[in-house]
Design a protein that fits this description.
Length: about 260
């Protein structure tokens, strides 16, 4: 059987085959999913699943917003990019064994209790997401697992919060530096070292996300892409459309038409 989920968008799937196997294509990558190899299907990755006969699996669905919320809490800041988990979960590895123990514990809790209390449900949910973020490699793993001295200094996080709160305003590097109480040079150096970007690119990323959120909320007959883009400071529509496609994998008009 061939299953074509496309892009899951609002949730991620973790698949743990009990028997049999599946060939899963994730973008340009292929993973053979079987009892010794679990798979993470990222929310934003297009997938195609070739499900072999007599295959049984445990499927865990986790909402994208919940993963992002926990990741932001661990980092102490807003995410600039989608969370990109490594697709394969080798069960024989140390990290794979930890993940399997966590899943087994949750499964046992759900199997033995007919009705869990809201508190217990929240604890299971939080524990599972925390284990996924700290155990399965992804593009924020290094920052999450880093020792405290290597974490970004407070002025970087302060500027990130300032950008998020004032992204709708015409803020400049000078505004950011004055708010943080550091020089523009120190600000650039901090973002380059700890965020691998610049303050203005971070601002553009936040504004692109706000445009995306606004387009998803609106009916295509009520407002134009141009009006939303201008409201968030994108005055060159050609460059805006290119950046938007690169970030979200579709044109802004396609997002609006959903």
């Amino acid at each position: 059987m061939t299953i074509k989920p496309g892009v899951l968008d609002t949730f991620a799937l973790i698949q743990m085959p009990i028997r049999g196997e599946e060939q899963i294509q994730l973008g340009d990558q292929k993973v053979l999913c079987n009892p010794s190899m679990g798979t993470v299907i990222n929310a934003h990755t297009k997938s195609l699943i070739n499900h072999r006969p007599n295959t049984e699996k445990l499927i865990i669905r986790i909402e994208r917003s919940l993963i992002e919320q926990h990741c932001q809490q661990l980092l102490g800041r807003t995410l600039a990019k989608n969370i990109e988990f490594e697709s394969a979960i080798p069960i024989a590895s140390e990290s794979g064994a930890r993940w399997l123990r966590m899943v087994s514990w949750v499964y046992d809790c759900l199997s033995l209790d007919d009705e869990l209390s809201p508190l217990m449900s929240a604890q299971l949910e939080s524990g599972l997401v925390h284990m996924l973020l700290t155990n399965q490699p992804h593009n924020y793993s290094a920052e999450i697992l880093a020792d405290a001295p290597s974490l970004a200094p407070s002025f970087v996080k302060r500027v990130e919060r300032y950008i998020e709160d004032h992204a709708h305003e015409p803020i400049t590097i000078v505004d950011m530096a004055e708010h943080a109480g550091v020089s523009s040079r120190s600000l650039f150096a901090g973002f380059r070292r700890y965020r691998d970007t610049s303050p203005m690119l971070y601002l553009k990323e936040i504004r692109l996300r706000r445009v995306n959120e606004e387009l998803l909320r609106r009916n295509s007959g009520n407002e134009t892409v141009t009006a939303v883009a201008f409201r968030w400071g994108f005055n060159h529509l050609g460059h805006f459309t290119t950046d938007y496609k690169r970030r979200f994998g579709e044109s802004p008009s396609a997002t609006l038409a959903r």
